Amino acid sequence: MERIRTEILPGVWLTALRTDKFKTAWLSVNLLTQLRRSTAACTAVLPYVLRRGSTRLPDLETIAAELESLYGASIMPSVRKLGEIQAVGFEAEFADDGAVGEEVFPRLAADVADLLLHPNTRGGLLRPDIVDSEREKLLERIRAGMNNKRAYAIERLYAHMCCCEDYAVPRLGEEADAERIHYRKLTMRYHDVLSTSPVEIFYCGSLEGKAVARILTDVLSTMPRGEIDEDIGTDIRMNALEAEPRYVTETLPVAQGQLAVGYRLGACMEEPDIPALFVFNALYGGCVTSKLFLNVREKLSLCYYVGSRLSTHKGLLTVTSGIDVKNYERALAEITAQLDAVRTGDFTDGELQAAIRSVASDLRATADAPDALAWYWLNRTVQGLDIDPAEMAALVEEVTRTDVTDIAAGIVCDCVYLLKGTEGPAYDE
User: Residue 388: how many CA atoms within 13 Å on its side-chain side?
Assistant: First the structure.
């Protein structure tokens, strides 16, 4: 794949991958803003409001007809959280120009730009009826988060573990803040985000990067650019909030207990070795050959599921597990024991190689899906890394036993969260 990266407007960056591999192309436009409790819900609802119509495409019916004429293209609102950065905008999937022999991308790019820059307003303000409608849908999405108890447990862990940090703010914001969204306030937020946010655009398709840049520069030429907020970023804390881990138990009418354990990655985040972090996580709990899966679940049967995941943006490691609450203490002890085993190098070369193969395979597989490539490059760009998935996979294959044990040595437990049913013993400490 041929890749270019260029600034097409002040603070607007394009990463374009040219490939003939896919019949469908991909375009994503991400406006990056600091994640804050006071603005998160307002920011999160913006792409949903903007997707409802523009001056040229005034309603959903008109938009649907336009997309249908583009071989059934789709334009979807996007809200992502990368550390303490909130990324909002649009993702579009459409027939590749080379595959259909027609100029699809110029029209699609114009449609995305129109929705972003020229919303359907009334008196210069976002329409109250649309804002009210999308506010209620946002509230439904926030409330529906409780239906996924695993994800809910993670959010509650972060709420306690990062209570003094913006990372505690959920991707969609808080329910109380969403309830206060008003069309005048949202219009102000829209103009602020549009004029001050760094913008990351990703294209994957058969067009030359320079041609993509020309088209996007043209359709986005009216985008207001004020003083770009270049200081957005994530506060990485090396140490736990307190000397000893904090233990939190909450109760809901659930049949299966949810255990979430939060760790700080520690000193390794001073100069993060991303490939080594990926391998460490896969070895510990990030894949089906991991120590957590093979020991806590398969060998000891202490849980229904268990796994770990990293936030390399924030420097956090999170272990989640579905358990019978009576196994809480044993499961927690074994989760800790498996981390200790990685610290001391108590794993075989076969386990290490299985972790390396899993990570390298996953990285190379991103080249098979435009949306996966878009997510990969957004993450790497925010981290200031210019390395493609194949290069990252090659670095992963060079990770050593010492690289992994050095990472594990500095990890500290910060908070343990248990969600249990309405009956049963409490485990607050």
Answer: 12
Q: How many CB atoms lie within 10 A of CB 58?
A: 12
Residue 224 has pLDDT above 70, yes or no: yes
Amino acid letter, 299: K
Q: Give the side-chain half-sphere CA count within 13 A for 197.
A: 23
> Could you read off the pLDDT of 287-313 as tens digits, one per residue?
999 999 999 999 999 999 999 999 999
Residue partners of 101: CB distance under 8 A and separation at least 6 = none
- Per DSSP, the three-state class of 94 is strand
Give, to the nearest 10 degrees, the angle between helix 349-365 and helix 274-281: 120
Specify the pLDDT at position 427: 47
**274: CB partners within 8 A, 6+ apart:** 312, 383, 385, 392
Q: What are phi and psi of 128, to 5 degrees?
A: -60, -40
SS3 at position 29: strand
Which phi-psi region, left, alpha or beta, contains residue 261 (left: φ > 0; alpha: ψ -120 to 50)? beta
What residue spans of 145-182 are helical by DSSP H?
149-161, 175-179
Q: Which residues contact 380 (CB under 8 A, 6 or more apart)?
A: 386, 387
Amino acid letter, 160: H
The span from the CA of 76 to the CA of 89, in Å, is 8
Q: What is the mean pLDDT of the chain?
A: 95
Q: What percentage of the chain carries pLDDT values higher than 70? A: 98
pTM > 0.85: yes or no:
yes
Decide: residue 155, CB within 10 A, 0-12 exposed, 13-18 middle, 19+ buried: middle
Q: Give helix 128-144 / helix 40-50 axis angle, nearest 10°.
A: 120
Query: Residue 145 and residue 222: Cα distance in Å, rounded?
Result: 37
Rounded Cα gap, residues 384 and 404, in angstroms = 23
Sheet with 412-420, edge to edge strand ranges: 246-251, 412-420, 257-264, 316-323, 305-311
CA angle 286, 287, 291 (to 5 degrees): 80
The pLDDT confidence band at residue 423, using thresholds 50, 70 and 90, is low
In tens, the pLDDT along 157-209 reads: 999 999 999 999 999 999 999 999 999 999 999 999 999 999 999 999 999 99
